[in-house]
Amino acid sequence: MSEDLKKLTGKNKSDYEAAASHLINNCDEKLFAELVENDDFLFDFVKENTAQRLEKYVNPDNYKNLLHFLKYYSPYYEDLIVGNLVKFADEELTDILLERFENGNNNEKTYAAKYFEYIKDTAAYDCLVDNAYSANDCLAQTCAHTLSVWQDEKSYETAISKLKGFDDFEILSAVKFLAAYGRKDAVVDILK
Fold it and tell me: Using CA atoms, how far apart are residues 70 and 93, in angstroms rounded to an integer?
């Protein structure tokens, strides 16, 4: 663990404030990547504190720095990143997130899917559907949940019909989709 990460996650207020400010204002991608890589080694309360520390330094002048962190997915920093991108959303930012959703890595796509949960741009629909059965569980679940928020009946009905297939992997992917979609009436079809 680097000294910068120790400062960011530590107890000394002057150290963690300086490290948080540096990470956000100087777009320290390397430090953010290290933070995400250490998810398994940090207590949840440390990750929550770190996200709150970083949140303090995001503002209208530097929020686009968060785009550099999209390559490194962590559910612990999803609200920090997506929440601030949504807060400052405009057409240009939405176009950037759509491009990442279409062409980015799975981490970028996961953040983008979460962004489109709040910014309901129909241009993202095909990406949501295409990634709803991804081998990457975080991406698939986020897409399914976003489609649920959009109240997309077509994707729900597609998943229900997949339950009636003969391919166990397809049935399992439909069950995962429906679980993330979160409609209680799907339980009867799943149990059958």
Answer: 13
Q: Tell me the backbone φ, ψ of residue 134, rounded to 5 degrees.
A: -60, 155
Cα gap 10→141, rounded to integer Å: 32
Which token pair is 55? Answer: 């949140």
Question: Which amino acid type is present at position 177?
Answer: F
What global pTM score does this model have?
0.93
Helices (H), the chain: 3-9, 13-25, 29-37, 44-55, 75-87, 91-103, 106-118, 125-131, 137-149, 153-162, 168-181, 186-191
Q: Is the pLDDT of residue 154 over 80?
A: yes
Supply 172's token pair: 């399992």
CA distance 101 to 113: 7
The label of the residue with tokens 């439909």 reads 174
